[in-house]
Design brief:
59% of the residues lie in helices and 11% in strands. The N and C termini lie far apart (46 Å). It has four helices and two strands, in the order ααββαα. A two-stranded antiparallel ribbon has the order 1-2. The chain is elongated, with a radius of gyration of 21 Å. The chain is mainly alpha-helical. A hairpin with a 4-residue loop joins strand 1 and strand 2. It has one domain.
Length: 111
């Protein structure tokens, strides 16, 4: 009778476990990035709506990085202000709020 010997089963199990955890991390990154975008869009002051519509989200590094940014030419002036206008922290406030949520989500994952 033929004998079957499996080599590397423990390594495979560890790899599968690690990949499952990375999938959970990617899910958290994507969810929190989307929530950051929504919150920044809600916070953005509206005159014509161009600034709000310019707030986008991109996911990179195989799902490990989420980047939310406003691409309107004047986005930085609104966020940080000018000598004529006070800052309106639509992105900074959203990041502070969502950053805490992201930390909590990641902490739950590693517990």
């Amino acid at each position: 009778m033929a004998e079957v010997k499996l080599i590397g089963v423990n390594e495979l199990r560890l790899k599968l476990k690690k990949n499952a955890d990375l999938d959970a991390v990617k899910k958290i990154v994507k969810h929190n990035g989307a929530e950051l975008q929504k919150q920044a869009m809600r916070n953005a002051p509206v005159d014509t709506g161009h600034l709000r519509r310019s707030i986008g989200l991109s996911i990179s590094d195989k799902g490990m990085t989420a980047e939310c940014a406003a691409t309107a030419d004047y986005a930085g002036y609104v966020e940080w202000g000018t000598r004529f206008q006070e800052p309106q922290l639509y992105m900074g406030d959203a990041l502070a709020k969502q950053g805490e949520k992201f930390k909590k989500d990641m902490k739950k994952l590693v517990e």
